[in-house]
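During the practical work, I selected for study one protein's amino acid sequence and its backbone structure tokens, as given directly below:
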Amino acid sequence: MKWVLLMLIICYAVPLHGLTKVASARPKAVNIGAVFTFNSLIGKVIKVAMDAAVEDVNASPSILNTTTLRIIMHDTKFNGFMSIMEPLHFMESETVAIIGPQRSTTARVVAHVATELKVPILSFSATDPTMSPLQFPFFIRTAHNDLFQMAAIADIVQFYGWREVVAIYGDDDYGRNGIASLGDRLAEKRCRISYKAALPPGPTRENITDLLIKVALSESRIIVIHASFIWGLELFNVAQNLGMMSTGYVWIATNWLSTIIDTDSPLPLDTINNIQGVIALRPHTPNSIMKQNFVQRWRNLTRVGLSTYGLYAYDTVWLLAQAIEDFFQKGGNVSFSKNPILSELVGGNLHLDALKVFDGGKMFLESILQVDRIGLTGRMKFTRDRNLVNPEFDVLNVIGTGYRTIGYWSNHLGLSVVPADERQNTSFSGQKLHSVVWPGQTTKVPRGWVFSNNGRHLRIGVPNRYRSEEVVSVKSNGMITGFCVDVFTAALNLLPYAVPFELVAFGNGHDNPSNSELVRLITTGVYDAGVGDITIITERTKMADFTQPYVESGLVVVAPVRKLGSSAMAFLRPFTPQMWLITAASFLIVGAVIWCLEHKHNDEFRGPPCRQFITTFWFSFSTLFFSHRETTTSSLGRIVLIIWLFVVLIINSSYTASLTSILTVHQLSSPIKGIETLQANHDPIGYPKGSFVRDYLVHELSIHESRLVPLSSPEEYDKALRDGPGKGGVAAVVDERAYIELFLSNRCISA
């Protein structure tokens, strides 16, 4: 019993000793660094928010227990160099994570160092979409990626039917990469950025004025502004002075504008007047009870307005606190060691050897990425590519002294007037956005473009043919007329705006140019469009879009004909010789059948052989006029006679109708009955030079190209058809219906 009791004491002592060791591994305080500009638009909000979050974490009995969370904030004072150096100071001390920097440009530099020292960097303001976890494994974005914001803008552009936008942005990593993402998202909607207008990171009013003048001279009136908090409002002030906040313009701002409105509300009257009608985006945060309580508490903490950056800052601190708790529960230990690579730099004035590696950095990073909690901004959970789940934005319209929410955008559901988190509990009508008050105080959706003041006229290619001047004709003085040009001009006159264009002749006027080549030149940008007798075929539809056809199309065959006039023998023409022989033979056969059936019992068909032959012959042919006198007595004879009389009636009617037509209507005859006749014989065939007809005859109808004769003009058509195959001409001409109708309108080809 003593030995059993001793073994039990040893077994229970081992886990107790392990628990004591784990508990002792928890430090009394955990340090978190924060790097931002205190007096910036974001800084004065996030400072208050993070202080409130640390207070709530340390007061909560459900997290960290005996460990105190301590956040150390350093002011970078609007200085990019300080934004890089201050995080390095934190890495000299025992800091397990750093919140910041504010800007994507400096965050990219600091993230390289953090990767080497295994210290997680969390930022809710560095939203550069190109900062991938593969390149920066220790950089974690705790706000939505700009990629989703640009996708929302692309959906708005597509929703209103616009096709081109102008992008204004700061010429830094944040601006360039954000606009690059916008271009990719627009391309998915078959839209594009027509003009990328970049401003220096710290632009002067003169820089902004020069840029907006160039924008005003462009065609697109859809302007997306991905600006900085520093110069964004100045740009709108200049645009107001230039008359660019008037009817016809559309301004779409990323979330920088909504942040200014939320933080500095109410804005000065002049500022509000400068942004009337602007559409702005704002990260969507659910209107939960937790958020409502925090908003009420915020009013007692500061006079500064609460923006979404404050909410993300609060949630980021709580996310780190939960990750630290998980890190300790997994047995993590806060310890730091020297970097062997940096140890070689001992003795330098920069003291880079003082930078320490967080030994538990990888485990702590995993704990951060595994956090799944509900915060003020909604669900805080990371996807495999380290983006927050369920990205969603509010679509705002600046009106009067504030704004109105006209809709919402989510990554999975697109645009809607109902938030994604509320759509399951409400009836959804399918409406995308509410009505918008656009610049100029109008509710009519702007067209989105105008003709550029310094733009060029549309170059319209017109085939310069030698034939069919009624369709398209290029005069000696350069004037281009014709039916196709008249249709094009009439269509333009129906538009509610003018379209400047110039007609450019394609071809030398002596040879018919290739329409397929003209269509190809449209795709290469030589011409903007084509007008003329351009047939829609499969090959051309793969290169360009066509209007609905306005002329009946199709290939037809024209061949010479021979007139059949009246003559003394015209009564024989209703039937062919074969038909006459068959008819005569039928009369004789029927007469013979009736004689066989009647001569044994009917005295009228009896007598000498000569008399019987004459009677039979007379009987059969007299039925043609229904004047036969002999009667039939047998049943079979009567049946045969009834059938024959019906056949005779049909023959009489057909003959009478055909003879009447011959004597009253001009008859035309041609050996060419259609394309099948041309395929069967070996006569030469004419076709329009430079037309697709040649390829169709060769490849589709398998007519040998040696039989094809190219013809350039109606005069050549006429001569070749009159000469015929015997004199070096052609048996027929294959061409499009419209040209053949024009050709036959003033010509009659007879052989």
The longest strand covers residues 402-410.
